[in-house]
């Protein structure tokens, strides 16, 4: 296993690379990879304006700590040349640039997430997970593939003060102050979408009344695992990945 000393990187950058590489493997294990597309990005903690992203052309299952690419806010590669999907980074850059708390940003095209993003009415408060997001989701109308900088202001406006966002007809976008926090948000939203998909395939779902939604959202923090939002959840998923493949550490 490589270390920060072997790679001549700061301890902070190497730790961020390891956590992000593990996250790509967790996403793949959970069925959230999309051929060679989609991105999870994090800020490099000790280098202002530097971010880590997957190398364009690799499947999520091939991502390792050392093959992640360091880029600036415009998607230019810092260090050794490597292919990066600059187009894919445009929307991440908008949020990294405008939201100081967005350490980690995740965007996926999962079937359930994309399906709900394309549904009139979007995610409805009809299941446990969806109820937790009621009133906390932004929606951004589809304008075509997100490669144009001028869409940025509209993306920020669509998110507003919400926790996460559906890109309509397109997919899920979540962010977090830490990677595990973003992971837990993505997992919960993905589950909400999967269950809505299943429920609507059977008939008309029951909506949870507003007063129950308020109680649910008020009391949810009492059911949180120790260690900060998503920390225990993410660590458990990394242990599962490690049972079959530990190569993300390299
Ligand atoms: Zn996309």
UniProtKB/TrEMBL annotation:
SMART domains: Aldolase_II (SM01007). It comes from the Bacteria. InterPro entries: Aldolase-II_Adducin_sf, Aldolase_II/adducin_N, Aldolase_II/adducin_N_sf. It holds the Pfam family Aldolase_II. Residues 18-197 form the Class II aldolase/adducin N-terminal domain. Transmembrane segments: none annotated. SUPFAM superfamilies: AraD/HMP-PK domain-like (SSF53639). Gene3D superfamilies: Class II aldolase/adducin N-terminal domain. Belongs to the aldolase class II family. This is Ribulose-5-phosphate 4-epimerase/fuculose-1-phosphate aldolase. It comes from Sphingomonas jejuensis. The lineage of its organism: Bacteria, Pseudomonadati, Pseudomonadota, Alphaproteobacteria, Sphingomonadales.
């Amino acid at each position: 296993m490589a270390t920060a000393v072997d790679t001549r990187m700061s301890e902070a950058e190497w730790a961020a690379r390891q956590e992000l590489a593990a996250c790509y493997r967790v996403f793949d294990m959970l069925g959230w990879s999309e051929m060679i597309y989609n991105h999870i990005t994090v800020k490099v903690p000790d280098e202002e304006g530097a971010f880590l992203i997957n190398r364009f052309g690799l499947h999520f299952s091939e991502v390792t700590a050392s093959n992640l690419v360091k880029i600036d806010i415009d998607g230019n590669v810092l260090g050794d040349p490597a292919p990066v999907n600059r187009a894919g980074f445009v929307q991440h850059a908008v949020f990294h640039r405008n939201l100081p708390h967005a350490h980690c940003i995740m965007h996926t095209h999962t079937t359930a997430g994309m399906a709900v993003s394309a549904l009139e009415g979007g995610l409805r408060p009809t299941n446990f997970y969806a109820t937790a997001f009621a009133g906390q989701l932004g929606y951004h109308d589809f304008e075509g593939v997100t490669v144009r900088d001028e869409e940025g202001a509209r993306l920020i406006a669509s998110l507003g003060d919400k926790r996460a966002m559906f890109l309509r007809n397109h997919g899920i976008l979540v962010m977090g102050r830490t990677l595990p926090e973003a992971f837990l948000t993505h997992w919960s939203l993905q589950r909400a979408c999967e269950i809505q998909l299943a429920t609507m395939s059977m008939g008309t779902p029951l909506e949870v009344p507003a007063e129950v939604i308020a109680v649910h959202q008020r009391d949810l923090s009492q059911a949180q695992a120790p260690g900060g939002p998503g920390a225990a959840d993410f660590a458990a998923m990394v242990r599962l990945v490690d049972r079959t493949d530990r190569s993300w550490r390299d």
